Amino acid sequence: MEVYLDNNATTMVDPEVFKAMEPFFCTIYGNPNSLHKFGAGTHPKMVEALNYLYEGINAADEDDIIITANATESNNTVIKGVWVDKILNGNKNHIITSEVEHPSITAVCKFLETQGVSVTYLTVNEEGILDAQQVKDAIREDTALVSIMWANNETGKIFPIAEIGAVCKEAGIPFHTDATQAIGKVPVNVQACNVTYLSFSAHKFHGPKGVGGLYVQKGYELTPLLHGGEQMGGHRAGTVDVASMVGMGLAMHLATKPEALEFENTEVKRLRDKLEDAILELPETVVIGGKDNRTPNTTLISIRGVEGESMLWDMNQKTIGASTGSACASEDLEANPVMNAFGSDSELAHTGVRFSLSRFTTEEQIDYAIEVIKNAVKRLRTISSSYAYTPKHHVSEL
After folding, report:
1. End-to-end distance of the chain based on CA atoms, in angstroms?
2. 354 - beta bridge partners?
3. How many CB atoms lie within 10 A of CB 378?
């Protein structure tokens, strides 16, 4: 049996989405910017896709949604655009973010620091979150942007976006959130949360890879990351991938319907909890960040005495896919930075395994995964030169 439990890295394309995309490869293939009927033939489905995107995040009609290649491009567009507009060409020189952001945020901020920009990296508590007061306390007169993710890609922890948005609105500072891991798992409402910019990727909610979006609130402009033609109203040059745009729109629609979100927060959560509880029956195991305030599909579990990479190897031999954290950092063998940020000790920081489910995960798959995982832990602990179980270190005391 094959079991895919790495849906925070990417998801399978929903078959309904794939079917909707097919005509745009060989039948309705015109360039949407061309004036002839071949180009115009793409427009109805593009409009429908945009409407789905607006509805999915409750954007207002006068706001913009720019089609990008992925959330990484969207994140870069926001931060580098603010750098050009507010820092190089303005009187601001400060950005606020958190220490557990996706690498497409932290790497850009580290780059901007080499250019003289001041960046504040807010710390998270032992539960892996921060509060709006930390943001308020960090704001300075020269703060140009606050960028805090909606939900963490490794732990699933949900941040207080509405409260942070209110703080930023009161201070008159643009607020960006990377909602890549939130869409399709929890309700996302840009108007209610006072969001200025929001990033997302289609492949995280059963859409195609290679396409994403950037929401921009009315009244805010950004210097484009890509210059060239006048596509996307001049905000992002390059011929639009119509098939992917159509797929992303439908995927957004399917993932954000009330009944879909209800399924995530009941059935997907139930299966996640079943897997999690079974692993926690093993001694010296712990959910990083705790069980509260998470997306319903995600758990990051530390298994003392078992290297995360070794655990993945054993599971892979039994055709189960999981992760030690962000796929974007999977080649980095250093201790998990998110677990370090939570205050995990050096040994524990190497033992985290992330399991992330989807609406296509079945009970049979979870039952099989539980059996394999328990056997793998037993085997790996038996051959470990450093692990020796003692009751005083049981999970209840960690």
Report:
1. 34
2. 300, 323
3. 11
> What does the pLDDT look like over 109-141, one tens digit per residue?
999 999 999 999 999 998 899 999 999 999 999
* Whether residue 45 has pLDDT greater than 90: yes
**Token couple for 139:** 């704001």
Which of the pair, 126 or 298, is modelled with greater confidence? 298
Q: How far is CA 340 from CA 20, 77, 188, 323, in A?
A: 43, 28, 28, 17
Q: Where among 256, 273, 288 does a domain terminate?
A: 256
In this prediction, residue 237 carries a pLDDT of: 75
**67 and 157 housed in the same domain:** yes
Active site residues: 328
Q: Same domain for 103 and 248? A: yes
Helices 43-57 and 242-256, packing angle to 10 deg: 40
Place of tokens 């940020």: 341
CATH of the domain at 230: 3.40.640.10
d(CA 143, CA 118): 9
Looking from the CA of 247 toward its CB, the CA atoms found within 13 Å total 30
Other beta carbons within 10 angstroms of residue 292's beta carbon come to 10
Same domain, 228 and 319: no
What is the DSSP track for 270-331?
HHHHHHHHHHHTSTTEEETT-SSSB-TTEEEEEETT--HHHHHHHHHHTTEE-BSS-GGGTT
Res 350: pLDDT: 78
pLDDT band at 327, cuts 50/70/90?
A: very low
Residue 66 structure tokens? 């720019």
Residue 144 belongs to domain spanning: 15-256
